[in-house]
Amino acid sequence: MRPWYQYAFFFTMVTAVVGGIHYYLYARLARAPELEGLQRIGRWVFLVGAVLIPAGMLTARFLPRPVGPVIAGAVFTWMGLVILLFFLTLASEPIRAVVALLEATRALPEDPERRHFLARALSGAIALGGIVVGGYGVASVLAPVVVKPVRIGLKKFPSRLGVYRIVQLTDVHIGPTIDGTWLRGVVERVNALQPDLVAITGDLVDGKVEALREHVAPLGDLRAKHGVFFVTGNHEYYSGVDQWLAELGRLGVRVLRNEHVRIGQGEASFDLAGVDDWRSHEYGNGHGADLARAVEGRDPERELILLAHQPKQALEAAKSGVGLQLSGHTHGGQIFPWGFFVKLDQGFVAGLDRVGDMLLYTSCGTGYWGPPMRVGAPAEITLLEVQREERA
Fold it and tell me: Residue 278, CB half-sphere, CA atoms under 13 Å: how many?
């Protein structure tokens, strides 16, 4: 476990950032138009919102149902709207800057009424845009998760397996706003695909086993010819990881912890490896990604598929004989344009990438975290159809 002061520092930083963003939005959307009623209402809306987000993040996952989901839904919906308003407001800054520059160079005469009109027009347009895009984002997560087929050709994959069907689930985030009823629907759709193997690449839960056991139970009904496999994501380490690993084992899910297993028999087989989350070493107790250990002792002539929660693991995996890495973590950015910032951290955001001689597939995720919204990054149940790539 991390020491308490690291969590305190993180919470303090989140509160400061959230407060700064709310003040910026208040200044641009409520104060700048210079309408007394709007300023008064906006002051209270953004002040209360700035307090609710960190408070809700801290408490919602620990409150019992049905109170917790109601609070979490309200808080995280507001968070999503704030994110949208923030990016839309930033996008309006060049317009304000151009008008200010024209007035400063006297290309336009100074006119307070013009500035007031511009501020009011931009405030209204941003608010309307945020509501419309936010509504679209909410509708996106309420719709059934799409099945996304992806064809993969691997040079060492055994031709005797034909087209091998791997279903990837990732970033499900069962917790305050996603429950077992939703997961049961996902499980039914996965089983209908008749997969050969199911891979769950981390961030399955946001909460303790005692609170979420019944909501994760539908995973026990997953059916695949060669089984269901799991690797940890960072959120498991916020939720009592060792208890969750035991619970998943009870449900028949095989957890891969820096190890590999043979899938299939004889020449109709390949190796499947899994590593702990990239940052799990920070939590001690034997956790930590160890790819060298995961591939130790295997025949390098056999095909190797790696499950790793964070796509940045690919930089090491490409040097370790991995043919295909399956990852999540990024949510595809979840709310545009957040994906640009994700790329700075991970190097990859969504879809199929080539890293050296290796292929990397990064899923947009099956659930969502925080805001119940997806904009420009739809959730997916990934159906990977893997077969041998014939050499020219």
Answer: 16
Q: Residue 254: beta bridge partners?
A: 229
Domains belonging to the chain, first-starting first, are 4-141 (no CATH), 145-388 (3.60.21.10)
Q: Please, what's the b/e burial string for 126-157 (b: 16 or more CB within 10 A of its CB; e: otherwise)? A: bbebbeebbeebbebbeeebeebebebebeeb
pTM above 0.90, yes or no: yes
pLDDT at res. 391? 64
Residue 376 confidence (pLDDT) above 60: yes
List b or e across 6-42, with b for residues whose CB sees 16 or more CB atoms inside 10 angstroms: eeeeeeeeebeebbebbeebbebbbbbbebeebeeeb
Q: Cα separation of 318 and 303, whole Å?
A: 13
Interatomic CA distance for residues 312 and 289, integer angstroms: 12
* Residue 3 preceded by cis peptide, ω within 30: no
In the chain, beta strands by DSSP E: 146-154, 164-169, 197-200, 228-230, 254-255, 259-265, 268-274, 304-307, 324-327, 351-355, 358-362, 380-388
pLDDT recorded at residue 68: 83
pLDDT in tens, 98-108: 999 998 898 88
Backbone phi, then psi, for 322, in 5-degree steps? -75, 135
Q: CA 53 to CA 73: how far, in whole Å?
A: 11
Q: For 196, phi and psi rounded to 5 degrees?
A: -80, -30
Tokens of 137: 């984002």
Residue entry with tokens 């936010």? 134
Does residue 24 surpass a pLDDT of 90?
yes
* Sheet bearing 228-230, strands edge to edge: 146-154, 380-388, 164-169, 197-200, 228-230, 254-255
Three-state DSSP class for 164? strand
Cα–Cα dist 252/340, whole Å: 37
**pLDDT mean over 237-261:** 96
pLDDT of 56: 83
Tell me what percent of the residues of the chain surpass a pLDDT of 70.
Answer: 98
